[in-house]
Design goal:
By secondary structure, this protein is mainly beta. Helices cover about 10% and strands about 40% of the residues. Strand 8 and strand 9 form a beta hairpin. The longest helix has 14 residues.
């Protein structure tokens, strides 16, 4: 037997809805699903919680760029699916990023300290002058990481990962 919240008296219905919201459960028809948190990106039923550590300051924002599982689009102009941005928090910045559906993706993160909307680069080689990092935290001492080293599988919603920022 299933009880419909809409059939309850108004005071009890209000308490039931508040309890459902507090527990993070949304009921749709006869199914229940975990409610998506306040994520950045195009809303979907799949999201990834990202903790970005090593953030030098609370200035500017942290940008997380989502790439499809396609090496030819990784780190190229207009190659990303989208960029989610949130205010930076010194030490650790936590964000939730929507992904279109379960699958394999790549994530690049940078600390946009000046809020310019792009990662600042300097010198002849165009080396980033702001903190940056990638999914799986591959080494980036002499060059950018390979696409294969940053691929991350997201088989379902509400998984977590940690990305460490490196500053020049």
């Amino acid at each position: 037997m299933s009880l419909k919240i809409s059939s309850l008296p108004k005071p009890i219905r209000t308490v039931a809805l508040l309890a459902s919201a507090c527990l993070g459960v949304v009921t749709v028809g006869n199914t229940s699903a975990l409610a998506a948190p306040n994520c950045v990106g195009t809303p979907s039923d799949t999201w990834l919680n990202i903790t970005v550590d090593g953030v030098k300051s609370g200035e500017g924002q942290v940008a997380a760029t989502l790439y499809a599982d396609n090496s030819s689009k990784f780190l190229v102009k207009h190659g990303s699916m989208y960029v989610g941005r949130i205010p930076a928090t010194a030490g650790e910045t936590r964000l939730c990023l929507f992904v279109p559906k379960p699958g394999v993706y790549a994530i690049a993160v940078y600390h946009d300290q000046d809020g310019s909307g792009t990662i600042n680069r300097g010198g002849l080689l165009g080396i980033p002058t702001e903190g940056f990092g990638f999914s799986n935290n591959p080494p980036t001492i002499a060059s950018l990481p390979s696409f294969r080293s940053v691929r991350i599988s997201i088989p379902r919603a509400n998984l977590s990962t940690r990305i460490h920022l490196k500053y020049p």
